[in-house]
Amino acid sequence: MNYFVTAIDTDSGKTLVSAIITEMLGTGYWKPVQAGYPTDTEAVKNLVTRGSVTYYPERYLLQMPASPHAAAKAEGVDIHLEDFVVPEGSSDLVIEGAGGALVPLNDEDNVIDLAGQLDLEVVVVSNLYLGSINHTLLTAEAIKSRNLRVKGVIFNGAPNPESERVILLRTGWKKLLHIERETQVTKEVVQSYAKKLKANWS
Asked: Which residues have CB under 8 Å from 189's CB, separation 6+?
């Protein structure tokens, strides 16, 4: 199975979560659309210890740190959903989206549509802040309207048991992990969370 990491907002922690899942699975990582530098692929490489991981090149590597549709337009690039193909020979591949689930790739398609196009199981990152319940439930509606499979949700940030409870109740998703507010993200931190995630993955 290949997995698509999406989130309720930009800077929700997708890259950290992608590194944790990649560390756990030890297979491959792919960021199909990268807008701006430094790249998330380099960030994941710097956090994962397992040498068995294959890092696949971006399908679209854009210079401008913006929504993919805006960066592509500024650089004279057309992003087409049908241009995305899962790299050959990959299994248990971690595929990281760009921004939140409904960030546009072009005038018709959104980042979350990659999950349907590529037949991926979705992992949702929900960082806990005031308003995150609303953003998470809206993300859930977008995912459910597309009939996508969801592996579960990973919460990120200071604990908020009531927010977690109502999100899990309303979505029916499985809680895979809670990432605390870390003062520093290191390889050791990623390894520690990978072990915790493994216990909840099956």
From this structure: 182
